[in-house]
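Researcher: Good morning. I'm working through a list of sequences from a screen, and I'd like to move beyond sequence-only analysis. For each chain I'm collecting a predicted structure so we can compare shapes side by side. This is the next one on the list. No need for commentary yet; just the structure.
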Amino acid sequence: MILNQESFNLSPFMAIYDIVVPKNNMLRQINELVDFSFILEELRNKYCLDNGRNAVPPIRMFKYLLLKSIFDLSDVDVVERSKYDMSFKYFLDMAPEDPVINPSSLTKFRKLRLQDVSLLDMLIGKTVEIALEKEIIKSNAIIVDATHTKARYNQKSPKEFLQEKSKNVRKAVYQIDDSIKEKFPSKPTSNEVNDEVDYCLQVIQVVESQPQIKVIPAVNEKLNVLKEVVEDYKEKLSYSTDPDARVGHKSADSSFFGFKTHIAMSDERIITAAVVTTGEKSDGKYLEDLVKKSKETGMIINTVIGDTAYSEKDNIQYAKKEEIQLVSKLNPLITQGKRAKEDEFEFNKDAGLYVCKAGHMAIRKARIGKKNQRNNQQQVYYFDIDKCKICPLRNGCYKEGAKSKTYSVSIKSTEHKEQEAFQNSEEFKELARSRYKIEAKNSELKHGHGYDTASTAGLFGMEIQGATTIFAVNLKRIITLLKEKNS
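Model: Good morning. Structure tokens for this chain:
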């Protein structure tokens, strides 16, 4: 049960916060910047209003998740730190003497209260609303890109993943006291996952029996991660890997196993929209969604900047329809063709036909493919097969026994011709220079807030992680821009 209205904290110790949490503390600034009552309104129907014992306030539970994202902590560690860190208690609207929650409550909150809530769109929309109110966002351009996040289990077997986490605990302990090696159990020799789980539980038991070792943060953090992994595995015993994670490709010879977050960001480096998908999804397919979501937050958009993945024909047509400049280079296959320079034939503009390297001109041409389709039409040029059979340059050009010799050239659509002309302009080159900003933002998400690896299994967990992480980085950016504006 939750109360119909927020209650005031009347603790006589509240004045301590004025002493120990300075005005320039980031968490104090976030509390002053954001009215978190929108969380209560959104989640009110997830609670009973007139029956049962009082629940921990939804706003406080959400703030715990936000602290996890800001400081990249596990459930156990964020609760542990909120016991003694006064800035955490201030941010959580707790009195200094108030007890903290049980870490397992965060799991329940995520699973029971955040289901069927568009948390990602809601949190991004709130930060963009604040930025527009403070007149921080002034540009009408967004930069789009996708960043990958590795699944919690990667493509390792559960046994390998458990081995890795237990090894991290042992290494941390050995750096403090090498003599504890003798107290650890023997490593399992079978390939059974349950044996590895039992071994991990014994490792946890040994470390917890050494309180002088367990209290050291370097050990305790690794221990808490191992506990979470064991619990997560026991709860999802039927899964060998993350059920929603998929193999995606960063390049022709580089892949990952996990998820993608498709992001739109304003020129001021505030994320205006995001879509979380499985790892195999194509970047370019989500341009329209990102533009629509950005507009729903109140953004006015006249320019979209992205890499080559966003220059597919459908996106060019959508941008034209919406009167948006699409600053995205065409695939080189469209502008230059797929042939090597040395294999190209010469075009005779007077005859309107191609001439091969031996000097033979095509005898006729034909157009194949339908207009206004996804794939461009092709112009096919036919050569005299009798000449090809005796040509001294036939090796590598004419296949013995073939009944015809053709040379095909893609016919650029009107959209591709217009886009190619635009990408050769100085305006395009100037706008494209801003694209680096979203690469820096992706790096901040991964290296500053743990977004390189999923904290839980499943697409739903990834969406919650994405929502709280993007909310955190947007708030930090808004605070920085407000400082610059007021200085």
